[in-house]
Amino acid sequence: MAYFDTASAAPLHPVAREALLAALDEGWADPARLYREGRRARMLLDAARETAAEAVGCRPDEVVFTPSGTQAVHAGVSGALAGRRRAGRRLLHSAVEHSSVLHAAEAHEAAGGSRVELAVDRTGRVAAGDVAAALTPDTALACLQSANHEVGTEQPVEEVAALCREAGVPLLVDAAQSLPWGPVPGAWSLVTASAHKWGGPPGVGLLAVRKGTRFAPQGPRDERESGRSAGFENIPAVVAAAAALRALRADPGTGAEAERLRGLVDRIRARVPRLVADVEVVGDPVRRLPHLVTFSCLYVDGEALLHELDRAGFSVSSGSSCTSGTLTPSHVLRAMGVLSEGNVRVSLPYGTAEAEVDRFLEVLPRVVHAVRARLGVPVAGAGAARSPEAGSGSGSGSAEASGAASENAEAPGLVVDSLGKRCPIPVIELAKAIGEVPVGGTVTVLSDDEAARQDIPAWCAMRDQEYAGERAAERGAAYVVRRRA
Amino acid sequence: MAYFDTASAAPLHPVAREALLAALDEGWADPARLYREGRRARMLLDAARETAAEAVGCRPDEVVFTPSGTQAVHAGVSGALAGRRRAGRRLLHSAVEHSSVLHAAEAHEAAGGSRVELAVDRTGRVAAGDVAAALTPDTALACLQSANHEVGTEQPVEEVAALCREAGVPLLVDAAQSLPWGPVPGAWSLVTASAHKWGGPPGVGLLAVRKGTRFAPQGPRDERESGRSAGFENIPAVVAAAAALRALRADPGTGAEAERLRGLVDRIRARVPRLVADVEVVGDPVRRLPHLVTFSCLYVDGEALLHELDRAGFSVSSGSSCTSGTLTPSHVLRAMGVLSEGNVRVSLPYGTAEAEVDRFLEVLPRVVHAVRARLGVPVAGAGAARSPEAGSGSGSGSAEASGAASENAEAPGLVVDSLGKRCPIPVIELAKAIGEVPVGGTVTVLSDDEAARQDIPAWCAMRDQEYAGERAAERGAAYVVRRRA
């Protein structure tokens, strides 16, 4: 069995387990009380705060514990926005933030605020220049994750923090994925994180607000945690979380382990496209989290793939629409403009054995093949093999194809009715149909599947076909693809 | 050592500890994931929800877990109010609710809603008739605790629930203190509770919303816990909390234990006034929580009393102003109109040894005496000993005294300047001064201590003196007391 989804939740660190057990006996009482059990609880809480502050790189009185990373984000965003109410109500964030940031931004918008979503490039990175251009005087807050939770790409946080400081706008950095590996660099104003991502127990988030940052906690008043997080403190869990973080920071092997995992991820990044046809490895190959890699497989049903990998003993997650409750693909993959079908995220826990990664690389091709076979995927051939020449020649080929297309406005075209069919079927039907029209001819896919909007253009980019756009249709939408070669 | 503050937090139940340990190994993963670790976590969460629902007396899909009782209340109040937005924005609650309810009500008011606070009698109970009269058609929600957390008085929840149902108004019952002893009776719409009050770990609250109750969760959207509680589920703690609650319900001794503790509390209620002079035992003597009793001692500094009791090995809490961060006395004691100085709340944990209660009764008089001696309290004598005759004769005596007072509008009066002095000093100075004026004469106490507003009238009631009201003063207020005997 190999658990490769540490970006969702890491198993409890042994040090955290020990600390939790001790703190259940010593830290269960109310730290606001004056008697010995209360004082003991208060001492544990204070010590945990000092430990966490040191790991974050700030002062203990700048750190509060929340019941989750999500609540740290919600409290941080709403408090910072309210603290800057006089400056304006404009919230800036990247398009690839964690859903907790996006949901906080939606709530802000619903309450009359405005928000600006910054686009990312195909690796998932925000351009610092875009942030600089968007930092208007009425911007109340900017949010930028330290590294992406789905594809691992690191954001230019230090550079953006400097720009924000210059503009007088506070920057909130969601460091949920990167804090296990080191503190957030630069002149940030707020940092949020989640303990169960670094081997702490669930039930603990962290919100650091640097002195000088205007902050007005929202929601009903509560005297605990400096009024920034309501409810009785979960001291045993907080103590355990701090112990795990301290253990990671104190371990001289953390840096070495990061390098080792980085090497294993490099191996996956290099080998998967060689072992499996029609795969897109996404995210930045270098400026990324050490332990995380994501790829998408054409003509694959993500849920079936996860199921097969689970049967083979691998626990991974996916941003495919079929693996989400809402049947929409991951907003991160969408913002990057990459394929979402057959998506797999591998995030290696601290200490992952090399042999497990090799076994994964052995199992994966077989599993993908089996899923594709069941779906009746077009065999490699017309349109199914991507030659480097075709790729490099696509620039000029494109011009020719368009020329041909405009001459043949009424040229041969095929309509594929994929209504009612879910990812990856519309893309599979497109791949089958493209060989049936002449070069310059079009295939129009009718689909009401949300994933098609993202995956048909992504398929075109991968297969060097021309994506000619989307038209409204009676049901769903009509996606037009023009054959290039 | 005796921990007598289980109403603040109960130590972890052994069953909860065991369940927590097991669930740390089995329930750390994301229950929304499809792989085995996720499915296992989901199963544990589902089972815990079933257990909790059974103990609450509702359906599993009516229960969500929150990170604390406070957050259960905040989410319950805001969600129920928003769900009833069309009916109106009027919120009804008793004056003695837990601070989490009051703070939720304040937030509602700050957002433009209205609220009506229902008064309580001297035992801390709301009159069902008052609730009935206050249930206007535009009332969106009523909140009533099942039993008070500071004085133990049970509220007429079942009767009020029936009235609310008839009026079509949902009732939220804060059952934090009573749920360990049994489910909330009657036709309630929402119930909230907190696991660390019943021997579960910290980090778990419970919110039950009965089907048919209009409910619109507030705050940023989150898909977990039916959208009613944001953030990654704390499954190990939830499992432990459910295990502790099941253990309490399954234990045929719970009823017997309640009766045993009820007897011990009766002993405290009966003996404390005999062992210690000038004590007021507050709350309903019969319709109350089994394990909780509160009394206040005249001329005693609550913080010093707590400190001395702690030194003697007893952990208790207090509603005295000097033991709160804000230097205001407990709002519960204030609403009841009872003394707040020298206040002690004893809440006995499950299994408290009889001998410990007896030792407490042995230690208490000595400790109170020591604190009073240090404060230079007036020795028993004029005004300091309360004879039953004086008490029973106060009705007629009062009329005479008032007559005398109105004849002597310019009668001898003393002004005591207690400005800058904190509870219990103003009351001690009043007690010293009252003997120096003739019957019918007045003592005017100048005080800027918030506790004086509550404790001077309470002293008058206890000592059968006439409280003649409060006047504005340059600093603080002037409290006028007329000597009766």
Automatic annotation (TrEMBL), chains A, B:
<feature type="domain" description="UPF0033">
    <location>
        <begin position="416"/>
        <end position="440"/>
    </location>
</feature>
<dbReference type="InterPro" id="IPR015421">
    <property type="entry name" value="PyrdxlP-dep_Trfase_major"/>
</dbReference>
<dbReference type="InterPro" id="IPR015422">
    <property type="entry name" value="PyrdxlP-dep_Trfase_small"/>
</dbReference>
<dbReference type="GO" id="GO:0008483">
    <property type="term" value="F:transaminase activity"/>
</dbReference>
<dbReference type="InterPro" id="IPR001455">
    <property type="entry name" value="TusA-like"/>
</dbReference>
<comment type="similarity">
    <text>Belongs to the class-V pyridoxal-phosphate-dependent aminotransferase family. NifS/IscS subfamily.</text>
</comment>
<feature type="region of interest" description="Disordered">
    <location>
        <begin position="383"/>
        <end position="407"/>
    </location>
</feature>
<dbReference type="InterPro" id="IPR036868">
    <property type="entry name" value="TusA-like_sf"/>
</dbReference>
<dbReference type="InterPro" id="IPR000192">
    <property type="entry name" value="Aminotrans_V_dom"/>
</dbReference>
<dbReference type="Pfam" id="PF01206">
    <property type="entry name" value="TusA"/>
</dbReference>
<dbReference type="Pfam" id="PF00266">
    <property type="entry name" value="Aminotran_5"/>
</dbReference>
<dbReference type="InterPro" id="IPR015424">
    <property type="entry name" value="PyrdxlP-dep_Trfase"/>
</dbReference>
<dbReference type="GO" id="GO:0031071">
    <property type="term" value="F:cysteine desulfurase activity"/>
</dbReference>
<keyword id="KW-0032">Aminotransferase</keyword>
<keyword id="KW-0808">Transferase</keyword>
<protein>
    <submittedName>
        <fullName>Aminotransferase</fullName>
    </submittedName>
</protein>
